[in-house]
Design brief:
The protein has about 325 residues and is an alpha+beta fold. It has two domains: about 190 residues, Jelly Rolls (Sandwich); about 100 residues, Homeodomain-like (Arc Repressor Mutant, subunit A, Orthogonal Bundle). It contains eleven helices and 13 strands. Strands 1, 2, 4, 7, 10, 11, 12 and 13 form an eight-stranded mixed β-sheet that branches. The longest helix is centred in the middle third of the chain and has 22 residues.
Length: about 325
């Protein structure tokens, strides 16, 4: 089956070109290290003419429309029409509203995050709108949150990926099972859906995720690729700016605008992420050798940085593996 392009990312121009090769390659590297933590999802059931007001939890909230048509409204009143296979990403701490039918006259208000189960607005007998609702944490490694700097509700049509619905149905099914590995299965299925999401976003000519849109800048992409490919190299802001063919000040400013962190902060993060599996999965390497591979000439300096980042020393990490 030949897939058509993701048709719409709301408030983003319908895309008419493919993502650049460099951007797709870098996105592939980021997604290969995706860390997803998914909380149990609730099933939100709305009758026609009902409105469901939801709180803004500390983590990103995900809504996936399983059945029916409706509207998602953010705190500023911006409306996003949704239908089956649409996925909505709500920034952390953002109160928002689900609506079913025209001009809803009835309302249910949820003041605090609800446990998994059913949240009903109206009657559950024949809901007009059925949405899987839950919170997730999505990171590259352990500390680079891929939705950390999202400041508005994002609505994406995933209808070109029918597997997305199967994945969400699988997540809900796993929650009701008592077999071992349910959480691992739910995480794997959610990761699959998020890859579909990022594929759509990567194909759009504009994107409201600053780090993703930054990958379209070939200068910045070269520097990011250098960090991911050679985390142990002797990187400095000057050397990375040179790789990007930018002045030091322009590079640092552009990088900070995209990632809200400094270039060397990302270098440190990638080094720490690469060090962890080297310590836990390769017992033939000494701690000094691991330190050298990820760019540290001093074992003591590496050990302090590792413990600050991971919360345990390299030695304790290796013993506990």
């Amino acid at each position: 089956m030949v897939r058509k392009a993701c048709p719409i990312v709301q408030h983003v121009v319908v895309f008419g070109r493919r993502a650049s090769y460099g951007r797709r390659v870098l996105l592939d590297k980021l997604l290969a290290n995706l860390a997803v933590d998914v909380e149990p999802f609730a099933l939100c059931l709305l009758s026609a003419g009902w409105r469901l007001r939801l709180p803004g939890p500390a983590d990103v909230m995900i809504h996936f429309v399983l059945q029916g048509r409706g509207v998602v409204r953010g705190p500023e009143g911006g409306a996003h029409s949704v239908s089956p296979f649409w996925l909505v990403v709500v920034p952390p701490g953002t109160r928002h509203v689900l609506e079913s039918g025209d001009a809803p006259q009835h309302e249910r208000r949820i003041e605090s995050p609800q446990p998994a189960g059913r949240i009903v607005a109206g009657s559950s007998d024949a809901p007009d709108l059925t949405v899987a609702c839950g919170t997730v944490r999505v990171r590259y490694g352990s500390s680079l949150g891929l939705f950390d700097h999202l400041h508005e509700v994002l609505a994406v049509d995933l209808s070109v990926f029918p597997e997305a619905r199967l994945a969400f149905e699988g997540i809900l099914a796993e929650q009701s099972r008592t077999d071992p590995g349910g959480r691992a299965m739910a995480t794997a299925l959610m990761t699959q859906c998020l890859v579909y999401l990022f594929r759509c976003l990567c194909g759009a000519p504009q994107c409201r995720l600053p780090w993703l849109s930054a990958l379209e800048d070939p200068r910045l992409a070269r520097a990011i690729d250098r960090i991911l490919q050679e985390p142990g190299a002797d990187h400095t802001v000057d050397s990375l700016a040179k790789a990007a063919a930018m002045s030091r000040s322009a590079f640092a400013e552009r990088f900070a605008a995209a990632f809200e962190r400094s270039p060397m902060s990302l270098v440190h993060h990638v080094r720490m992420q690469r060090a962890y599996p080297l310590l836990t999965q390769n017992g033939s390497l000494s701690i000094e050798e691991v330190a050298n591979r990820v760019g540290y000439s001093s074992r003591s300096h590496f050990s302090r940085a590792f413990k600050k980042h991971h919360g345990v020393s390299p030695t304790a990490c290796r013993v506990a593996r």
